[in-house]
Input
Amino acid sequence: QYETKKQMSKKLLSAALLAAAWLTGSADEAQFDTGKLYTIESNNNAGKYMQDNGDGYIVTGALNANSYWEFEATGNDGCYYVKNAGTGKYMQKTSEFEKYVKTGDASVEIYIKNDPKKGTNVYGMASTDRSPHDFANDDDNYDTYGANYRAGSGIVQGFKATLGARPNSFWKIVAHSFTNGVCAYDCTEKYQ
Output
């Protein structure tokens, strides 16, 4: 069968848009909805969720009321302020090598990028105060420091984060549905 010019034009336009997204990296930039709650689980350590237990640090543990986060768009592509829904505190910078990632009152811009080799909902998270923060390199002189699960410790620290590598530096981010204040997933009474 022969395609019409209109059908061919649509296919070419679609292909061009996909190619442009691929070249600019925008297809892998995170897109989260303001007003939804999300969990952030270690991609390499099932059942280890980021949480803010009110002590000023992000730690990991079993899913609980402190494991829910909100993403507030900053206006920059792929960038968000990441706020704990329970404490109202924001994720702070990830840019200090092997230092705990803290929580605080000030909003800090976090660049979030999907690693397609790890899955569609698996992301690296890096504060934009350090360049680069694009997850492209794994070189001591030019690498990204992102939120990293320190194996066996329950601590979230700043550490090297590279697409296709560094599995403890990537996180499964999943939205959870709430209807009239009731969670449709595994929520504690705090959200019911």
About this structure: Residues 1 and 111 are 46 Å apart (CA to CA). Confidence is low (pLDDT under 50) at residues 8-26, 188-192. Residues 5-24 form the longest helix (20 residues).
